[in-house]
Amino acid sequence: MTNYLIEKYYRTERLPHIWCPGCGNGIVLKAIVKAIDNLNLNQNEVCVVSGIGCSSRATGYLDFNTVHTTHGRALAFATGIKFANPKLHVVVITGDGDCAAIGGNHLIHAARRNIDITTIVFNNNIYGMTGGQYSPTTPTGDKGTTAPYGNIDPNFDLCELAKSAGATYVSRSTVYGVNMITKQVEEGIKNKGFSFIEILTTCPTYYGRKNKKGNAAEMIKQLNEITINVNAYNNLPQEKRENKIVIGELYKDIREEYTEKYDRLIKSF
Amino acid sequence: MKALDDKKLIVEENLCKGCGICVAFCPKNVLKIKNGKVLVHDIDSCIQCGLCELRCPDYAIYLGGK
């Protein structure tokens, strides 16, 4: 099946990709492409937008309508694309630094408007491309190039942020559970409104090396150990809930979509 | 067991970066790393579970055949 997905949806002449050996981004990208294939979407009606960073290189390898934009502004460009052509399925691929740090403002306002964009955040806990600086999602105490004695900042829970800002589909998964990513991306694209999917991935080159997390395969297995499904989490007693990251579908809501609302306003004249 | 007869595990050597994820997740020790690339050294043990294909970040290994 892989060669089918790769040949149909990838710009194969650009492979092998730029990502380091063991980087989880390639696994996540294939899971996203599989979700689009499962939904039988027309390749020409999908637009993938990305910002700057390791994960954002993904658009270069995909054979959809793709836009590689400026740092943090992927959601701003995507809003414009969706507004100009509401028939498109707009998917935003972004990293934790791109989405939560420089693009944090665009994230909360896109969520507030509930515009029909599926945002997929590749969260590798660090700025990989620029050399391993700590990001807003680096866990407290963990090391980066700019935090050699451990990061003192509290880390951001991006799913809580998106939920509070008004996203209508919020979920989280890891590169350990690849099929879960596919399922969540399918749900996210089907959801008429702002969908936010955070995917915990691995950066063995910087995050793994700085924090002595072992090799790529060990890092992926660790992701399984530190996460817990939302259904199991709800049944846990309070004292056992600490230090666990909840995965699964975290929030769903129904609210009028932004371009539809705008269309209604225009038609009222 | 007939269905397993035409099993094929295809490795695209130019895509493989030798990260070893497929080797670690293979439940039957079919694979190993040699000279920085993955090598199928025991195809008879392969049960076609597809775990190597599922988690290969470089799209370098996949199940072929029917």
Number of strands of chain A: 10
Q: Give me the side-by-side strand order of the main sheet of chain B.
A: 1-4
Counting H and I runs of at least 4 residues, what is the number of helices of chain B?
2
Whole-number mean pLDDT of chain A: 93
CATH homologous superfamily heading of chain A: Thiamin diphosphate (ThDP)-binding fold, Pyr/PP domains
Q: Helix- and strand-based class of chain A?
A: alpha/beta
Quickly give the CATH architecture of chain A.
3-Layer(aba) Sandwich
Helix content of chain A: 25-40%
Briefly note the structural class of the backbone of chain B. alpha+beta
Q: What series of H and E elements makes up the topology of chain A?
A: HHEEHEHHEEEHEHEHHEHEH
Query: Separation of termini of chain B?
Result: 14 Å
Largest sheet of chain B: 2 strands, antiparallel
Give me the CATH fold name of chain B. Alpha-Beta Plaits
Number of beta strands of chain B: 4
Order of helices and strands of chain B: EHEEHE
Strand order of the largest sheet of chain A: 2-1-3-4-8-7-10-9
Question: What structural keywords apply?
Answer:
heterodimer, A: 269 residues, alpha/beta, Rossmann fold, eight-stranded mixed sheet, two-stranded antiparallel sheet, 11 helices, 10 strands, 39% helix, globular, B: 66 residues, alpha+beta, Alpha-Beta Plaits, two-stranded antiparallel ribbon, 2 helices, 4 strands
Question: Brief overview, please?
Answer:
The complex is a heterodimer of chains A (269) and B (66). Chain A has 269 residues and is an alpha/beta fold.
